[in-house]
Amino acid sequence: MAKFEEVGPRSPITESTRVDLVHPRARLGVTIRAIVAIVIVAIMLFPVIWLSLTTIKTRPDSVAVPPKFIPYFPDGFLSDWCMVPQLNKDGTPKLDKEGQPVLKERPICFDVTLEGIVGLFFERRTLTPAQMKQYMDDPNLDWADRILLKRGLLITGPGEFVNRFRNSLIIAGTSTVLAVTFGLLAAYAFSRWDISGKKDFLFFILSTRMLPPVVVTIPIFLMYRQLGIYDTHIGMILLYTVFNLSLSVWLLKGFLDEIPREYEEAALVDGYSRLQAFRKVVLPQAATGIAATTVFCLIFAWNEYAFSLMLTSDIARTAPPSIASTQGAGGFEWAIIATASMLFLIPVVVITFALRQHLLRGVTFGAIRQ
Amino acid sequence: MATIELRQVEKKFGQLHAVKPMDLTIHSGEFVVLLGPSGCGKTTTLRMISGLEAVTGGHIYLDGRDVTWLHPSERDIAFVFQFFALYPHMTVLDNIRFPLQAQRVPRDEAEKRVSEIVKMLQIEHLLHLRPGSLSGGDRQRVALARALVRRPAAFLMDEPLGALDADLRESMRAEIKRLHIANNATTVYVTHDQLEAMALGDRIVVMSAAEIQQVGNPAEVYYKPANLFVARFIGSPGMNLISGRYADGVVYLPGDNRYTVPESWRAPLAQALKDGEVIIGFRPESARITEDGALAARVYASDMHGAFNMIHLALGEESNIVNVRVDRWITYALDTPVRFDIDPEGVRFFDPRSEKALRRGGAQ
Ligand SMILES: Nc1ncnc2c1ncn2[C@@H]1O[C@H](COP(=O)(O)OP(=O)(O)OP(=O)(O)O)[C@@H](O)[C@H]1O
Ligand SMILES: [Mg+2]
Q1: A322: pLDDT confidence band, cut at 50, 70 and 90?
Q2: Which A positions 249-288 lie with beta carbon below 8 A of chain B?
Q3: What is the pTM of this model?
Q4: Where is the domain boundary, B197, B229, B261?
Q5: Do B250 and B214 have their domain in common?
Q6: CA B195 to each of CA A257, B191, B200, B235, B340: distance values in angstroms, whole numbers, following the listed order
Q7: The domain A162-360: what is its CATH number?
C-alpha cells in the first residue's frame, strides 16, 4: 500500500483542516478520543441513570445484589422477556395447579412501582397485616393510597417535601437575583472608576470565600438567634446573597472589563445619562457574563447544605438537608430519596438549559474592530 | 452650527502633561483638523471638548456658553470614535435611531431624519444587519450616520478613517468632505495622516509634545511652517533642512557651497542671528537641478513616485541629504555630480537655537 505521505488522502479534503490532521494516524486518534469521551460521559451519567432507576424500585430491589437494571411492568412492557417460563426435565413447560405456566423473574429485572414517588409527597404510617386487610376493602381509597397500601403503609397527611422544595426555590432564587444585581453594580463601579483602595476592596471581598462555610456557622448561628432571623427565609437569603457576592463581583468584573468604554462614551455624548447608558448599552453586552454568574450563584445556593442544616429547623429548611434525612420506618427509603434528588436536579438543569445560548459566548464580542 | 472656543485648556494625568494650556477658536461651519504624531494629546483635546474627559484647567465655550463642566449628554456634540463604537447588540437601524431616542425626537420626525441620512450615505440595504457583519467602510458610514442624524452643534471625529485600508480611506475621505460641504457643520477632526489633514481641513492645528505648534490653512502650514517641527512633520518627505552659517548675505553650506540669500531676507537674518548659525529650508519642489545651479551636490539615491521622481542629493558628506523633485523621465546614475538652484520664493530660514522660523516684514 502506498504511503499517505506520497499519495495523500483517498478523497479530496473539502473542510478547513491541517495536513497532519487528515493523516490516517490522526483519524485513528480521533476515533480513540471519541470512544474515550463516550466512556467518560457514560461514567458521568451513570449516577443519574441509576438514580432515576431507583425512583421506581421497591426497597428490596434497590439494594439487591446483583443490582437490577431492567424495569418491567407486570403483564406489560418487557414482562415477556423478564418473566422466564420454567421447564420440566423433559423440556415441556412447567405448569402450576391451575394449569398456568410457572414463570421466574430474571435476576436483573425488577418490576416498576410508584411507591417511592408517592411516598415522597405524603406522611406514612406502617400497618399491621390485620389492619391492611381491613383497609383493603375501604372504597374511599384513591390510587395513591392503594400503591402504598401494597407496601403496608397508610397515608396520614401531606409530606413536608413540597414545603422544603418551595423554600429552596424561594431562597436560592431570591438570593441569586440579589447577588447578581448587587454584584453587577459593584463590578461596574470597580471596572470603570478609580476607587481609592480598589485592590484592597476586591481582595477583601474575595477573602470571604477563603475559609470553609462550616467554620463560620456557629458564630452566624449565635448572631442569627440574637437577631431573631434563625430559621427564616430572610436570614437564609441574606446569607446566600452575601456568600455569592464575592463570586459574582469577581466574575462580572472580568466580563465588564472586556466591554470597551467607547460604547458607554458614545451613549453619553448621544445624550444618555450614565445609568441609561449602563442599562441600554452595557447590560445587553454583559448578557453572557450575567448568565454565567447566575448559573454559578444558583448552583451554590441551590446545593448548599451545611448552613441550611445548622440555621434552619422547619419553616425555612431547604431541600438538601431534608433529602438526606428522609428515613422511613426501619431503614432508608431509597426510592423516596432518589425521587427527591431527581426532582431537585430539575430546576438547575432547566435554568442552565435556558441560558445555554448566553453561556456560549460570541455575538457580542469582537465587533469593535474588524 | 456652533463656534467652539478653548481658553487655556489643559490636561494633566498625574505628573504627565497630556495637553499644555491651549487657546483655540473654531469658527462656525469650519472644518478644523488636529494633526500631530502619536501621543501628542489630540484625542485628549477632543475628549475634553466632548466632556468625556474633565479639564485640569481652562474653559471651553460652545457658542459663547461655558460648557466646561457640563455633562457630555448636555453639550449637543456628536463624537465619531476611531473604532466606530457601534453597539453590537443593535441593528444598524437601531444604532442610527439610538441618539434620537435620547432626545425624544417624535417618531415620524425621527423616521424622516433617519431615512434622509441613510439615503445620503447609501446604506439603505444594511439597516437590518448587525454591525458585526459589516465591512469597515460600511461601519464607518453607519458611525457617520449615527452622528449626523442628531444634527448636533458640532462634530468631533477621532481618526475616523484610521481603521480602514488605504483605498477605502481615500474614498471615505471624499465622502466626509462631501458631507461637510453639504451640511456645513462645525467639525473637529483628529488624524495623524497629513494627507488627510491637507485634503480635509479648512485649517490645520499642528500639535506636538502636548502643545499647538502652528495653526493655519493647509497652504500656510505647508509653505510657511512656523518652526522646525512643522517643517519636518508636514510633507512627505518633509522640508529639506541644512545647517549653515550666515555672513554678509551668504549662507555657507556643507560641501563648500555658498548660498546667496535673497535680498528681502538679508535684514531679518542679520538681525535675528547672533552668531550666524542658521538652518535653511526648502521643499523638494522648490529646488531645480540645472547645469549652472549655485549649489553643488552628488546624486545619492533616487526613487520613483509615479508622477515624479525624487532625487536624493548629498551636500558634501552623506549626512546632509536634500530631496529634489524632478520630472518622471529624468534619471541620474548614482554619484553623478549635479548642480541645483533654490527658488527664492520657496526658501525659509530657521534659528537653530529657538527652532522657530525667521520672519521677514510684509509678504514673508
Ligand atoms: N486615561 C489616561 N490616563 C493616563 N494617561 C493618558 C490617558 N489618556 C491619554 N494619556 C496620555 O496622554 C498623552 C496624550 O494622549 P492622547 O491619547 O491624547 O494622544 P493622541 O495624540 O491621541 O495619540 P494617538 O495618535 O496615538 O491617538 C499620551 O502620552 C497618553 O499616554
Ligand atoms: Mg488618539
Answers
A1: confident
A2: 260, 262-263, 265-273, 276, 280-281, 284-285
A3: 0.79
A4: B229
A5: no
A6: 36, 10, 8, 8, 28
A7: 1.10.3720.10
